[in-house]
Structure formats: structure tokens, C-alpha cells
UniProtKB/TrEMBL annotation:
Coiled coil: none
Keyword DNA-binding appears in the UniProt entry: yes
Role: Confers DNA tethering and processivity to DNA polymerases and other proteins. Acts as a clamp, forming a ring around DNA (a reaction catalyzed by the clamp-loading complex) which diffuses in an ATP-independent manner freely and bidirectionally along dsDNA. Initially characterized for its ability to contact the catalytic subunit of DNA polymerase III (Pol III), a complex, multichain enzyme responsible for most of the replicative synthesis in bacteria; Pol III exhibits 3'-5' exonuclease proofreading activity.
Pfam family, one: DNA_pol3_beta_3
Example of a GO MF term: 3'-5' exonuclease activity
InterPro entries associated with the record: DNA_clamp_sf (IPR046938), DNA_polIII_beta (IPR001001), DNA_polIII_beta_C (IPR022635), DNA_polIII_beta_cen (IPR022637), DNA_polIII_beta_N (IPR022634)
Origin organism lineage: Bacteria, Pseudomonadati, Campylobacterota, Epsilonproteobacteria, Campylobacterales
Complexes and interactors: Forms a ring-shaped head-to-tail homodimer around DNA.
Protein name: Beta sliding clamp
Residue ranges annotated for the DNA polymerase III beta sliding clamp N-terminal domain, each copy included: 1-118
Occurrences of domain DNA polymerase III beta sliding clamp central (ranges): 129-238
CDD domains for this protein: beta_clamp
């Protein structure tokens, strides 16, 4: 195998492969990137069995057919140190040779025929949805996906395809985040995408792509790359029963006011109390050792005072994903879950219960 490629192109692709490599065991073949030259095209693959990426590059020269594997981390370490000029990559017996000008590097290879194949299935269903809409929807709920929860289904996002809409749902048990889109033509289905896959999809796909799935796998692909992930096999909690059927109070508040005030009182401690009064909102830290407090004057059209106590991070996560200048806050009374809403996106947050 042999090919010549521009350093910047090769570095970008090898760098994008890193999240898909086995990190704990450098002796595993899945710590390697698979390379194959065929018909003047270079194909690269990386997978840890749970998630994988395949990329195709046509901008190579002096191509000679062949295939190889090489430790992905070591390969990137070498490529980063090279100058921004063409690189010669070739195989010699059981080694991959990397050359640029008068520099030469040699890395050991494994048997490329033993490299695991990525999912190749013809019976997957297509998810009829704009990739941009998919990315925007999952981006909003990503902060609320849990990490390392023993209930492993919470370590991913639920795609709940209903008759009239598609819900994108995540929860870390302290909050529930939901964004939704209109469903035009997709059959009803549910599947859970792991958090790692959710994050990588957002990095990889900026333009239109094809999205295919079955009960165990999800594949997102375009002309240059194919991404796959195994889905989480589990039952997501019945999130709809948590959504309040009615709200006693519902008000719109300028987002910039909320963000500025919350950040002002959370410089030392993240738990805050927000007191709503007919003509103002008071923000104060719940830190017992220090005092942080600020107030904004605003007409709220309420007839009594009430408060919300909350981890400010949950509110800031929501506000960072909103598009409009104003957001809605809904609640029934102090010490009960409250509701934040923006266009086709809402979050329900469990409060910190304070003694009345």
C-alpha cells in the first residue's frame, strides 16, 4: 500500500477518528485505525465495537492498492509534528512508514484482515428528518443526559417518534429536557442513542446526511463519511407523566436579565433562591458562609410572592440553548418542579426544597 496526501487533510481525518478508538488497551486491534487504498481512494475506519466511523478521501496521489492498521493515537502524534506539506504513507512488511522530506517514522501494524467490520445492513429504516433539525434538537437536550447512571438507559437520549411529532428527550433525574419537531412521514418508534454518540454526531455532521436505524443500531452517513453506533437496549422512563398538565403561573422574562443575574450571584456557590414578587425578582445565593444578592425590577402580573430554589447550572444550561430574547417560566407553587420553555424546547427542573 502507498499513497501521498496533504498533511492538513490527513491530520483532520485522523484527529476525527480518535474518539472511536479503544483507549484502555493499546494492544487491542480496536486501538488501531484501519487504512485501505482502492481505486485511488483512501478509506479509514475506527471502532471500539460500540461506536464507529468510516471516512473516504479522494485527494490522494501515487495510490497503490493495499490495506493496513496502525495505532491511532501514535499516528496522530507523528502527523501533528510534521510540516504542512505532502506526506508519503506506505507499508513495508509489518510496518507502516510515514515520510516527509528527510524525516521517516515507522509504526508496527496488525493484520488488517482481522479488523472488525462496521455495520453493513440493508434492512434499516430511514429517519425522514433534516440533519440540521436533528442536530439542533439533540444539542438542546445534551446537557441533561446523565453520566454513568446505573440505569444505563438514562446515559442516552430518547428519540420518541409519535404520530404527529418527534420528541427528543433526556433526563439526569434532577431535570427533564424535551425538544420536538413535527413528524411528517415517520412511523412510530422509540430508540435511545448513547451520550457519546450524541456528542459525536454534532461534531461530524454540519450538512445533510442520511439517517438509518433499527432496534439495535443507528447509522448517519453522507458522501464522505459513515458514522454508526449501537443503541442502548432499555426502557426509557415514562417522561410524559412528569410534564405538568396545567400551570398556575406562566410568565415571560427577558433571557439576558436572567443570565446576568444568575451569573452574578453564583460566582462562589451554584445553589440559588429566586424570589418572584409583583414588581421585582430577587436572586440570592444559598451559600451560608457568604452573601450574594441582586434584584431586577419587572412587572410580573402576580398577586403574591413565591420562590424557586435551584441549582443554577440547570437554568443556565437551558438558557444557553434558547433562541429567543424572552423565555417562559411556569410553576404552581414554591418547592414544586418548575417549567422553562423556549420555542419547541422545554425543561422541567426539580427544585431544592427549602423549609417554609
Amino acid at each position: 500500500m502507498k499513497f501521498i496526501i496533504t498533511k492538513s487533510i490527513f491530520e483532520n481525518i485522523v484527529s476525527s477518528m480518535q474518539p472511536f478508538l479503544e483507549k484502555k488497551d493499546a494492544s487491542s486491534i480496536t486501538s488501531h485505525i484501519y487504512l485501505e487504498v482502492n481505486d485511488s481512494k483512501l478509506t479509514l475506519k475506527a471502532t471500539d465495537y460500540e461506536i464507529g466511523l468510516e471516512c473516504t478521501i479522494e485527494s490522494i496521489t501515487d495510490a497503490i492498492y493495499g490495506k493496513a492498521t496502525v495505532n491511532g493515537s501514535n499516528l496522530l502524534g507523528i502527523i501533528k509534528r510534521l510540516k504542512d506539506a505532502d506526506i508519503i504513507i506506505e507499508t513495508d512488511e509489518n510496518n507502516l512508514i510515514i515520510k516527509q522530506n528527510k524525516s521517516t517514522f515507522k509504526l508496527p501494524m496488525y493484520d488488517a484482515d482481522e479488523y472488525p467490520t462496521l455495520i453493513q445492513k440493508d434492512d434499516l429504516k430511514q429517519l425522514e428528518i433534516s440533519t440540521i433539525n436533528l442536530i439542533n434538537s439533540i444539542r438542546k437536550i445534551t446537557p441533561a443526559i446523565d453520566n454513568n447512571n446505573p440505569k444505563f438507559e438514562l446515559n442516552g437520549a430518547l428519540i420518541d417518534i409519535k404520530t404527529s411529532k418527534i420528541n427528543f428527550v433526556s433526563t439526569d433525574t434532577r431535570r427533564l429536557a424535551i425538544s420536538y419537531l413535527q413528524n411528517i412521514s415517520n412511523a412510530e418508534a422509540q430508540f435511545i442513542i448513547p451520550k457519546k454518540a450524541i456528542i459525536e454526531i454534532q461534531k461530524l455532521f454540519l450538512d445533510e446526511a442520511t439517517i438509518m436505524y433499527d432496534e439495535n443500531n443507528l447509522i448517519v452517513s453522507n458522501s464522505a463519511m459513515k458514522f454508526f453506533t449501537k443503541l442502548i437496549n432499555g426502557k426509557f422512563p415514562d417522561y410524559e407523566r412528569i410534564i405538568p398538565q396545567s400551570l398556575k403561573y406562566n410568565m415571560s422574562i427577558p433571557k439576558s436579565m436572567l443570565v446576568e443575574s444568575i451569573k452574578l450571584v453564583t460566582s462562589l456557590f451554584s445553589n440559588i433562591k429566586i424570589t418572584f414578587r409583583p414588581h421585582s425578582i430577587v436572586f440570592e445565593s444559598l451559600d451560608e458562609d457568604t452573601e450574594s444578592k441582586t434584584q431586577i425590577d419587572i412587572e410580573l402580573n402576580i398577586d403574591q410572592e413565591f420562590y424557586l430554589a435551584v441549582n443554577a447550572k440547570y437554568m443556565l444550561d437551558f438558557l444557553s440553548q434558547t433562541n429567543n430574547e424572552e423565555v417562559k417560566i411556569g410553576f404552581n407553587e414554591s418547592n414544586l418542579p418548575f417549567y422553562l420553555e423556549d420555542e419547541k424546547f422545554f425543561t422541567i427542573i426539580m427544585p431544592i426544597v427549602l423549609e417554609k
